[in-house]
Amino acid sequence: MQGEVNANNRNFTNLPAGDGTRWLPVTQPGVRVGELPDGRMRINLGPSHPATHGILENHLILNGETIESVDIHTGYVHRCFEKLGEHYGYNQFLVCTDRMNYVSTPMNNIGWILAVESMMGITAPPKALVVRMIISELSRIIDHIICLGILGVDLGAFASFLYMFHKREDIYQILEKMTGARLTNTFCRVGGLEKDIYPQFVEDVKKFLKTFPKVLNETDTLLTKSRIFYDRTRGVGKISGERALAYGFTGPNLRAAGVDYDVRVSSPYMYYDQVDFDVPIGEDGGVYDRYLVRLEEMRQSLRIIGQLVNNIPEGAYHADLPHAYLPPKHKVYTSMEDLIYHFKIIMHGIEVPTGEHYFSTEAANGELGFTIVSRGKKSPWRVHVRRPCFWYYQAFPEMVTGGLLADAIANMSSMNVIAGELDC
């Protein structure tokens, strides 16, 4: 068979390969992947490639090992979360925020709940806020472990990956005991937490605080001063603070470029203005500086957690909001008033005041913001998510053009692009 065929809605071209035949996807109808007439190569870096971590598609033109141009494509995991948010109730939408940045799920949930609570003019009890902060910083550590561990693997440093993922599992054990789930936790509710902390929560967190610094220092020793790692990352994928701001960078990738911006400091929420921590800043915005910033941020997260874990307040883990927070099941069975509240929340949902509101938090990869437009119904009229990965992935072509193909792999890993945040 000659020419092009359609298989699963993808165009493929029959190209001779030695004594056999191979089928290669084409980037545009009639354009073949492979060698161009002038000797350059057109290749697909992803979506089916270990270094693209699933579903990131990049069309590259190579001149030898040098990248001459890049065309990025998003949309492979488009799940219409923003549109779903306009049909779900405010607590129900947590199943969507769970799946945006699925590496540090609780931070998405907390950001959404804080946006709704801010719009309703309510504040969760101190105990709920402190626990949310502890879980947020544990989630930040998980996210940075993923980023730095995978960066090491993509550059051949497998040992650091194993060291760090062992401790990542300890955090997942805490989350599983707390929420009953590992990845998609859904443990927040408007007004507080879904349930109280389990009896050994403080003990488990303290144990992690005691054991993780050793692993962090081992990773520092393995990578930071490794000549191979240094040569593969220093000065690679550089971006200036001005260009980073122009693209909409936030989070560690922006701070690595020398811009001192952290939502926890510039617009404090919960109790971040009452804890001591430093915001690490880089210089050239390259792979090595992004690595150093995230490494130090994990130490600062440990510092924040240490100030909180011994001071978790006593008392309720949710506010007294019978019109928004489901009553305990035993009260529903025994109290007519609680039965009525339960019925109204289940059938009519939580009614948020009419208006438009934006609220942002400092997620692991940067500023995570939620815009909510309410018309007083049980579901938002409009929802928009400012997901940090979507903005800085757009800079990928500029950061890798003119560099080597191997450097593009290191650059992508250090950016920590979470595909679930690209397409909401």
From TrEMBL:
Any GO MF annotation of the entry: NAD binding
Subunit structure: NDH-1 is composed of 14 different subunits. Subunits NuoB, C, D, E, F, and G constitute the peripheral sector of the complex.
Catalytic class of the enzyme: translocase
Chain segments annotated as transmembrane: 141-165
Record-listed E.C. numbers: 7.1.1.-
Protein family according to the UniProt entry: Belongs to the complex I 49 kDa subunit family.
InterPro entries, alphabetized: NADH_Q_OxRdtase_suD (IPR001135), NDH1_su_D/H (IPR022885), NiFe-Hase_large (IPR029014)
Location of the region described as Disordered in the Swiss-Prot/TrEMBL record: 1-20
UniProt topology in membrane: Peripheral membrane protein
Compositional bias ranges of the Polar residues kind: 1-14
Catalytic activity as recorded in UniProt: a quinone + NADH + 5 H(+)(in) = a quinol + NAD(+) + 4 H(+)(out)
Keyword annotations: Cell inner membrane, Cell membrane, Membrane, NAD, Oxidoreductase, Quinone, Translocase, Transmembrane, Transmembrane helix, Transport, Ubiquinone
Subcellular localization, as worded in the UniProt entry: Cell inner membrane; Cell membrane
Protein name per its UniProtKB record: NADH-quinone oxidoreductase subunit D
